[in-house]
Amino acid sequence: MAAVLEQEKSYLFEEVEQHRLALTEKYDAQVKTLRQELAQLRTQLDAEKQAVAVAIQEGELARQKDTQDAEARSEEVVHSLRREMEIIEKGKSETSAHPEITLKSNKDHAELVSELASMKESFEAEKRELETQKTLLEEELAELQGLLEAEKKTTVEMSALKEALKNLKAEKREVENMAEGMKEKLYQAYQQKGAEQSGLEEKLQAARDEGHAQGEQRGFHQGKMEGLAQGKQEGFAGGFAEGRQRGIEEGQLQVNEEALTKEKQMEEQLDALRGERASLEKRLRQEKENSTRLNQMAQGRDQLKHSFDQILAEKDLLTARFDEAITTLTEQHEEEKTMLKSEIAQLEDQRLNLVAERTAAQAQLEALKKEISRQTMTKLEVEDSPRLEEQAFVIPQNRNAIQEEMEQLKLKLREAEVAQKGLELLKEEREGLIKENGDLEEALKKLRVKSHTEEGSKIKAQMAEINSLNEEKQKMKELLDQSSDQLMKASTSMALAQSNFVRQLEEMKRQQPKSSADVESYTRLQVSLLEHQRLVIVLQDTIREREALVSTVVQEGEDALQHVTQVSEAKLKDTQERLDWTHDLLVKQTEKYNQQVSLNQRNAVLLKDLYVENSELIKNLADNVAHSKKLQKKCASYRKSFRKLRSTVEDSAWVSPILERI
Question: What pTM value is reported for the model?
Answer without folding.
Answer: 0.22
